Amino acid sequence: MNTTYTIIIVVLVLVIVGAILGLVFARRKRSGRFRDQYGPEYDRTVQAMGGEKKAQIELEERRKHVETLDIRPLSAGERERYLVDWAAVQSRFVDEPGQAIGDADRLIMQVMQMRNYPVSDFEQRAADLSVHYPALVTNYRAAREIAVKNDQHQADTEELRQAMIHYRSLFGELLGTEAAAAKEK
């Protein structure tokens, strides 16, 4: 009789340990998927939300929100017009770097608006961008921070140069190619 109870207890302990290990591995796998998809934005969101589960819920809500938007690719004509505008912004950087950063920020918002991203709030813009451009949203946040510093006349030329590089990478992705635009649909 003691042997039977011992076997039952050992089996129950093994089942419980197996269930716990299964949950731990499932959680790690889910976290790994989010980390792979969102990169540094995942870690930033975990820190901001105070935990992985809350961050995963937040990122899932972002994805659902962006799915409700009618994000569209730019037409060839729109793309060409924005490329001309961007060239003007970049050329202005040499003589007026502060003004060029402000113009780059506004041009990014114009492109986003043309593609049907909501643009009223920076944090919402960054959150929406993180769904399709997770690798670039960190750069966008950094560029925006420098642009705000620039508005307060506290950014130096090297910071402005770095902001322009960040804006340029995001701008290029937002304009995209036909293949990239089709992939987003």
Can you describe what's shown?
- There is one protein chain.
- The protein contains 9 helices and no strands.
- The chain has helices at 2-38, 40-49, 52-68, 76-95, 97-114, 122-132, 134-151, 157-175, 178-184.
Secondary-structure map:
Elements: H1 2-38, H2 40-49, H3 52-68, H4 76-95, H5 97-114, H6 122-132, H7 134-151, H8 157-175, H9 178-184
Strand fraction equals under 5%
- Cα-atom radius of gyration: 23 Å
The main sheet comes to:
none
Helix tally equals 9
The shape is: elongated
* Mean pLDDT level: 87
> Element order, helices and strands?
HHHHHHHHH
Q: Assign the structural class, choosing from mainly alpha, mainly beta, alpha/beta, alpha+beta, or little secondary structure.
A: mainly alpha
Count of strand segments: 0
* Terminus-to-terminus distance: 66 Å
Number of domains: 2
| Uncertain segments | 177-185
**Helix proportion:** over 70%
Question: What distinguishing features does this structure have?
Answer:
9 helices; mainly alpha; about 180 residues
